[in-house]
Amino acid sequence: MARIAGRFRRVEPRATAHAFVLGLLSGIERKNCWRLAEQAGHARPGPMQRLLRSARWDADEVRDEVRVYVLEHLGSDDGVLIVDETGFLKKGAASAGVQRQYTGTAGRIENSQVGVFLAYASSKGRALIDRQLYLPEHSWCQDAERRTRAGIPDRVEFATKPTLAGQMIAAAVDAGISASWVTGDEAYGQDPGLRALLESRRIGYVLAVACSTRVRINHGRTAIRADTVADHLPASAWHRQSAGAGAKGPRFYDWAWVETSGDAHRHLLIRRNASSGELAFYLCWSPERVPLSELVRVAGTRWCVEECFQAAKGQVGLDQYQVRHWTAWHRHITLAMLALAFLAALAADATPTRSAQPNRLARSTDPIDLTVPEIRNLFAALLNFPKASPSRLLHWSNWRRHHQAIARRCHYRRRLFAPSST
């Protein structure tokens, strides 16, 4: 917390931010302002709500500190930047950026907000280092009244998700994040602008693309679909390699790579599931020639961002906010990223250095390394949050039920006096 203390001009929001992050690291069931205020011993949720909505501090400056902190603890020569998005299911239409849209969180079209994130992953660990709320073009960017109600700054214009990803990557590189590779799923691999940006910055990429993506092989004039290329590969073109360690051991797939456009720095990488035969395709570029094993390693690193989302939502309440304002969203998300980075740094520092990797497999009695969930459980227990007295528990119960009664009366009144549709 001392790292970000200077980002707050007054002692009150600084102390509230400290209590906020401690609450995110605690074991409380829901990590919204009401519960966090109760956990901190406050009589009202007002200080927590002001911290997110109106207190004077810049969430981007705190984000910068998170980025540096992650680099200090997780930075490594094998670091990879990962771009991806995650959805936040919401009710109503007032929250900034909310609309009915597809989100992988639900696996279908739902009323939700979508955040685009940048993660950093290395052999030491992984953490989220940047975030941007996606703002739909027609329902939000072109609706001035709606933007004003949600506190969206005038400077914010429509940007596609790959454009937001490119902005975050450029900002991270300019800030000193050293990563030779970027990876992401089809939503980002299909965008030629993002690929051009990475090439102009001399950053290699392994980006997933659709099977219908067309590439040129052997200086051919006609572009060929990626799945057609895979169908014509001989058996000798496939190589069994691991994409990294999974929960149940190494993730082995069959891999093939083909030069595209006659350029030794450009490849179509193809992954085949040995059991089902399912194929996945990646467009790859590197400023220098690299072996197949390096492209496979980077492709396998993409799943680290899914682990980040799972840990951030399950451990530090990334998706448990109850805010509608543009600024409040970015502030909550940034403080949750800080809490996750803290846990990831502890996990990295607690992992012993082992020179003989095969010996680990022989000693089956050794416990696994400390994980982010386990460290959060230990931290919450060791911190020994004081138990609330019966009077405080009743106070907060009365407070919540009082405000829920007000909300219910407002809903009933709105429906009773709404114009009839008949």
Summarize the structure.
Helix content is 43%, strand content 21%. The protein has 422 residues and is an alpha+beta fold. Helix 1 packs across helix 13, helix 4 (59-74) packs parallel to helix 13 (326-350) and helix 7 (161-174) packs parallel to helix 9.
Could you report the average pLDDT, rounded to the nearest whole number? 90
Structural class by secondary-structure content: alpha+beta
Q: What's the order of the H and E elements? A: HHHHEEEEHHHEHHEEEHEEEEHHHHHH
Q: How far from one another are the termini?
A: 58 Å
User: If you compute it from the alpha carbons, what radius of gyration comes out, rounded to the nearest whole angstrom?
Assistant: 24 Å
Supply the number of helical segments: 16
What is the helix fraction of residues, given as a range? Answer: 40-55%
Please give the largest β-sheet.
10 strands, mixed
Low-pLDDT stretches: 354-362
- Work out the strand percent: 15-25%
Basic shape? globular
Counting DSSP E segments of at least 2 residues, the number of strands comes to: 12
Assembly state of the chains shown? single chain
Describe this structure in words.
The chain has 422 residues and is α+β, with helices and mostly antiparallel strands. Among the domains are: 203-293, no CATH class; 384-414. 43% of the residues lie in helices and 21% in strands. The chain contains 16 helices and 12 strands. Strands 1, 2, 3, 4, 5, 6, 9, 10, 11 and 12 form a 10-stranded mixed beta sheet that branches. It has a two-stranded antiparallel sheet with strand order 7-8. Helix 1 (11-25) crosses helix 2 (33-40), helix 2 (33-40) crosses helix 3 and helix 7 (161-174) runs parallel beside helix 9 (192-200). The longest helix is centred in the C-terminal third of the chain and has 27 residues, at 390-416.
